[in-house]
Design goal:
The chain is of the alpha/beta class. It is 44% helix and 13% strand. The protein has an 8-stranded parallel beta barrel with strand order 1-2-3-4-5-6-7-8, surrounded by 6 helices. The termini are far apart. The structure holds 3-methyl-2-oxobutanoic acid. The site of 3-methyl-2-oxobutanoic acid (KIV) has 11 residues, from strand 6.
Length: 270
Amino acid sequence: MVTWTPDLIKASKGKEFLPALTVYDYPMTRMLDELGIPMLLVGDSLGMVVLGYPDTTHVTMEDMIHHVRAAARAKPRSFLVGDMPYQSYETSEQAVRNARHLMDAGAHAVKLEGGKEIGTQIKAIRNAGIPCVGHLGMLPQHILEEGKYRIKGRTEDEKQSLLDNAAFLDSMGISALVLELVESELTAEITRSISVPTIGIGSGNGCDGQILVTHDLVGTFPWFRPKFVQPKMEATRLMQQAVQEWCNDWESLYQKQRNRRESTDSKPDA
Ligand code: KIV
């Protein structure tokens, strides 16, 4: 099986489709690594699908370190990327310090949301020799300012800004670029214009790869599901069925025992 290094991820551009999925713990990482998934992201979507927060802005460095460590214990051959959480990369010094924490926890690279506005932080992380994945389009860590999740790149200004930021991140030596909720023709244009693989989520099929929150794909978080997701199974419903069957099996066994005891108790003494 292939070991997915940052160089191999870059070299796959234009040659093969790159599937990527999120992981938050040891069994999920081991399961997806056994399938040979090239890139696994310990995403800060952790906040919603595991920790029960309304959005990613509540996730801390401690949370991310804890879950990157758990995923890394599976020793994946997949490229294991750790998300830098909200407000963990406000300055270059803080960005490098926190990126090192995630790498020490076992990540192979870190992912940051944004382009030129976080240019000094990305430059400092790259100068420290840490591989980076970019993230443009709808940035979930900006949900409080944005108010809602929406498609980006429909206006001329947004389009130009996304093209410029993608080129900028490419020049910074990122290993791959996540494009979240980007207008689909623009996604294809960005994909053609940069040297590293683009990995789309809700951005159409013009990317080099696709990423999804694994819980959305298998239905382990059915209470909120983004519009673009088409789950392949409904695991929560199946687990609820299994638990219900287990309860019913024991309930009927206990009922039978009670009935037997009652009928013995009510027999008159000989
Ligand atoms: O946190 C996350 O899961 C992500 C993906 C949705 C790209 O950033």
